Predict the structure.
Amino acid sequence: MLFVWDRGRLRWALAALAIVAILGLFAILFGAASRREFIASAREQAERRAALETGTLIADVGKFRVLPFVLVELPNVRDALERRNSQAVSNLNRTLASLAQQTGATVFYVIDRTGNVRAASNAERSDSFVGYSFRFRPYFVDSMANGRSEYFARGSVTGRPGLFLARRVGRLPDPLGVIVIKIEFQKLEQLWRSAGQDAFVVDTDGVIVISTDPKRRFRTISDLSSDRRSALERSGQYSNVNLNKSGLTLEDGGFARDEAGSRFLVVEQSLPILGWHHYHLEPLKPVFTAADARTRLATSILAILLTSVLVALSWIEARRKRIEATRLFLEAEVVRRTSELTAAYDRLQQESDERALADSRYRAAREELAQANRLGSIGTITTSVAHEINQPLAAIRTASDNALKLLALGNVATVQANLTLIGNLTQRVGTITGELLSYGRRVRSTAGSVPVGDIIDGAVLLIGDSYRRANVPLELVRSDPLPTLHAIRIRIEQVLVNLLQNALEAVRERDNPKVQLKAFANSRQLFLSIADNGPGVPSDLVETIFQPFYTGRPDGNGLGLSISQEIIQDYGGTLTVEPNEWGGATFLVVLPTEKGGRGENAAD
């Protein structure tokens, strides 16, 4: 009896040891697999975040890269460099200051052929660059020799780092100088930091030039050779900086470790900017914590399963034990797969919501620009509308005075006629003021069926008196009948007001000014053309004039044509410009009619 008891205890002991061994092996293998899976998932997320960061940086730099090519063609730049008189320099200072404010660049400045700053957007500030010599800067030397240059360095005046984009003014062998744009990245670093990101950018020497952690800036990710360190000190690129190695050590396999021993997952991406590289860091501790938690849970489940099987061996026949084990295993698989599918669905839903939010913000920002454009023209329109209102008001005053006199004489019939006239004139005033209020109001309505004739009448009512006061005839040519559009009336009306205002400005100085608004349609499309006999649009500017912030007038804001083209494109139409037989320009709007069907991207 004692022998049997010992064999039973030995059997249970061996079974327990087997369970422990199985659980230990499972924990090791499953834990390693979980860590690999969680690291892969974290790396995918890090790559998406890194792509957003690099996309933002490339977009910020890209929008400024084209500006030097445009600025060198400004007459003000050549006047300031060739004539060297104070008035030309003062005009250029104002132009550069306005451009800096509109574009968000840190500073614009113009250097003459000797390396001295002649004009700058910060000329009126205490940290003005005017009068400083930058002939030692590589971007000046390279631009004078090769036409253009890009260079990153700490500012010799402000001490703040930034990217310098330079372009030569004039041609070899006798260039006039160089125009430079400086871009600083503090706002970009703050944007990344506020999003909870840990990232930095290094140059070709491994020097960290942009970083969400200010302590890393101007540290290196690898040791600099003594020769290279001496060369950097002589160039002044990173003046008054020690360029010590950072506490971050990059490891093989896309990982890194800091001074405290914490490990990070690293995503490295090349940038099309001066050979820079972007690094995005994700801490591994949360990843390992989540993977280990799942391993513990899975091991616990397996332990329960094995213990249940072991107990079942003593009480239930082999067939029931196999069925039970299979059932438990399948349930665990269902839970795991359900969890994975749920997590995948949640991620897709979140991404969809984020894209919808981004689209909503884009449309709101675009409408804000359109609203700003409408408000910008309110001043001119208000003067015109005020004159339109004064005429019926004067007639109302006269009719009311006459009515009092006629009433005293008992001439009731004429009094009634005067009162009817007053009512009609009052309705006319209400129509005019209603049109002005509607034009200035922020667009909140949805698209609907709008007669084209009403749109034309509204636009002419707002701008007509401006033409009459300028003694410019506005010829209206309409086909009959005109169709209806599926649109928001104010948006199409804004396009006509913009184009008619531009045409008026184009012919103001003409001896025999002419402007024609022509409207006609076929079975599917509406055509609106605004023609003038102004100076016209040069062929090389046909596309440029529709770009944001481009303007040919000193008092223009460069938004009218850009916003107008976007509005027309939203409704599936086109806005183009071409020369006409009068020697001026004809702007042609083509829109699908309500019968012809709206464009796919028509905005309500």
About this structure: Residues 444-604 form a domain with the Heat Shock Protein 90 fold (CATH 3.30.565.10). The first helix runs from residue 2 to 65. The chain has 14 helices and 18 strands.
